[in-house]
Design goal:
Blueprint: H1 8-38, H2 41-44, H3 53-65, H4 67-78, H5 87-108, H6 113-147, H7 150-164, H8 171-188, H9 192-221, H10 230-252
Helix pairs in contact: 1-6, 3-9, 3-10, 4-8, 4-10, 6-7, 6-9, 7-8, 8-9
């Protein structure tokens, strides 16, 4: 009954449930775990290191310029086809993807500024804080300590981050984003950096959908994918690569490791 998103009451309940889930399953447990491990959640979760204006500008530029790359990875992932003997698994994945897409589109239908602000809070703010605290602040640290390798820690946490969404035809772009957030956290030593990057990524989608869903939805999704926009994909790769390298160089001059990581 709840999955009938055409019913406004069901949709309101799902939004309420989504909000509680973000707080109860991600944000609160992260602070509890941080306190258990360190007696200071803010220290363990790397909240105490502030980020500079340069870092804020760099993160915003990286996330906005990466739109064509994310679109390209999404198209690559969605075109994936399984061999015939895995046909039933593929059909199950597509059913899950369709159901998730229906809920996402229902959440993103907004007809007022108030709904836009609430969606930014529900889709932009809460997941950015909660998911980054769990996957970067805790799991990435744990897997890094287990494997004694920061790169394995980042990649395992990114795989779990992408798999958690249960949207298999969006696994690749989410995995890449998870790895990006992981390296941004490692290079900067501040949890505020991946939170900001995650927030910009999610909020950009919400804002674009609010203003342009009726007129430019297809153009936005195909930006960097269609033949006429491949040049923007190439430019996007070059700009993002340069910005990441610059961010890495400037941050590694300050510290060689993320506080709390034993490598």
């Amino acid at each position: 009954m709840v999955t009938d998103v055409s019913n406004p009451e069901n949709l309101t309940f799902l939004k309420y449930l989504q909000t509680l889930q973000a707080i109860g399953l991600f944000i609160l447990p992260a602070f509890i775990i941080g306190y258990i491990f360190d007696k200071s959640s803010l220290n363990y979760l790397a909240f105490k290191k502030n980020i500079s204006f340069y870092s804020i500008f760099s993160i915003a530029a990286i996330m906005l310029c990466s739109l064509p790359v994310i679109n390209f990875l999404s198209k690559l992932n969605s075109d994936m086809q399984f061999p015939e003997f895995l046909r039933q698994i593929e059909l199950w994945m597509k059913d899950k993807e369709t159901a998730a897409q229906q809920i996402t589109e229902a959440f993103l239908k907004m007809d007022s500024i108030g709904m836009l602000v609430f969606n930014i809070f529900m889709i932009g703010v809460l997941p950015a804080i909660g998911e980054e605290l769990i996957f970067r602040g805790i799991l990435q640290r744990i897997f890094t300590e287990w494997t004694k390798n920061i790169h394995w820690g980042i990649l395992i946490a990114a795989i779990m981050f992408s798999g958690m969404h249960m949207q298999f035809y969006g696994f690749l772009p989410r995995f890449i984003l998870g790895a990006l957030f992981g390296y941004l956290f490692y290079w900067s030593g501040s949890i505020w950096v991946p939170i900001l990057a995650h927030f910009i990524n999610n909020t950009t989608a919400v804002v674009l959908y609010y203003f342009y869903s009726d007129r430019m939805e297809d153009q936005i999704d195909n930006f960097g994918v269609s033949k006429g926009t491949y040049i923007f994909l190439a430019i996007s790769i070059l700009i993002v690569a340069y910005l990441l390298w610059d961010f890495y160089k400037k941050n590694k001059k300050i510290t060689g490791e993320v506080p709390g990581y034993e490598l």
